[in-house]
Amino acid sequence: MSATPTTRSVVGGTGPTGQADSSHDLRPQLRLHSVLAFGLAYLAPIIVLGTFGVISDKSHGGTAGSYLIALVAMLLTAASYGRLSREIPMAGSAYTYVRRMVSNHLGFLVGWGSLLDYVFIPMVIWLIGASYLNAAFPAVPDWTWILIFIVSTTTLNILGIKVADKANLVLLAIEILVIALFTVFAVYAVLHHGRSLISLTPFTGTPFNVLALSAGAATAAYSFLGFDAVTTLTEETVDARRTIPKAIMLTALVGGGIFVVSIYFTELVHPLVAVVDIDSAAFEIAKSIGGAFLSAVFLTGLIVGQFASGIAAQASASRLMFAMGRDGVLPKRFFGVVSKRTGTPRNAILVVAVVGLIGCLLDVSTSTSFINFGAFIAFGMVNVAAIALSRKHASEAHGPGRLVGYVLPALGVLVVFYLLTQLDTPALVVGGSWLVIGIGVLTWLTRGFHRPPPEMGDAA
């Protein structure tokens, strides 16, 4: 069934009297540099080191190759996100795009699948940060660090997007400096041991195995989750039709460049270090090549990165829940409103904080895998929505050519769903079960598919 949403202002809604309805609308405040910083903070470039051990193990030492595969998939999908964000400048990301361009019912399921991604990502971010802090301070349990992350990021997000934006800019700058320092030490260590800085091994692994590289790419895609999240800030961005598409591509390109370069040198130095725990492999490498100084700097950078990423991830997840609440898909009175004082979806922010507590029960590898399931479903369907947009433009005698309009998004669909098949079994079981629950909820909302899900604008 095609979606037929009603018209709604994308900058600020109005009530019956024509005045701004502050309980159902977000305020445009952000410009390109802020949105780009938000996207990069969400990516948390230093997370490429945080998950290094897990991906290196899966790819047989071919982490750079895995990241290149993931980057290609993400750039194809980023192009589709950019086109759709220009056409439909509203919060809700993949959920909104698929509802508008493909089907109300599929849009709901994409939104439901995205919840697995967006709502649980902050939990994983806090979990990774806690695992590294626990490695440095084993006497302090993981749950203590998780609680500290949750309380601090939740407070900043409730205070307002501008407060979170300023915090992100400072934290991101620190994070980039730490990555640069780590890379310099890695280069020195490789040269000091008489090894060459030029090698194909970080791209191919040992032995070369396409399935292993693909499995690594399926997990590496977690590091890219953020280029799409900037679309959830559409209604809070000035000149969103131009700003958001630029921010999407720049986030994927800049983030991908940082990932590939830094992970290449980390993989070169990896064989020189005996790693005990793959979940905190980069910390052990930092301690080996730079002693107490680099390990302290690395840990500081990682925690700063996780903190900045947690702010962005929680903000993004709350905007998706707000969009679904405004539609009536989630309870409208609870999720579909924003605080009149701060202009933020406070209730949704608090829900994400509560979900974060689940991180006390999981490990890094399992949590990143099942989150990627929801992301891949959303990415694949966004490419389908981009093809639907091309068909719409073709019928109106305008739009991009066949390459941009059809071939690239079709390749995006194939690559993303191939990566989906490379996820481990627990991730597929959790993700599949989540979708089955979503189908049940959709059946209930539509009274057995006899009516469409709540439309955009119905909750206004």
Short description:
This protein is mainly alpha-helical and 460 residues long. It has helices at residues 32-43, 47-50, 52-58, 63-87, 94-101, 104-118, 121-136, 142-159, 161-192, 201-204, 210-220, 240-269, 281-327, 332-335, 346-355, 364-395, 402-421, 425-445. The chain has a single domain (32-445), classed as Amino acid/polyamine transporter I, CATH 1.20.1740.
How would you describe what is shown here?
With 460 residues, the chain is mostly helical. It has one domain: Amino acid/polyamine transporter I (Up-down Bundle). Helix content is 69%, strand content 0%. Helix 3 packs antiparallel against helix 11 (210-220) and helix 8 packs across helix 13. The two termini are 23 Å apart. Residues 1-24 are annotated as: Disordered.
- Please estimate the helix content: 55-70%
**Unreliable segments of 5+ consecutive residues:** 1-23, 456-460
Order of helices and strands: HHHHHHHHHHHHHHHHHH
CATH superfamily: Amino acid/polyamine transporter I
State the CATH architecture: Up-down Bundle
Described by strand count, sense and barrel closure, the largest sheet is: none
Can you lay out the helices and strands and say which pair or pack?
Elements (H helix, E strand, L loop, with lengths): L31 H12 L3 H4 L1 H7 L4 H25 L6 H8 L2 H15 L2 H16 L5 H18 L1 H32 L8 H4 L5 H11 L19 H30 L11 H47 L4 H4 L10 H10 L8 H32 L6 H20 L3 H21 L15
GO cellular component, one term: plasma membrane
InterPro entries: AA/rel_permease1, APC_superfamily
Subcellular location: Cell membrane
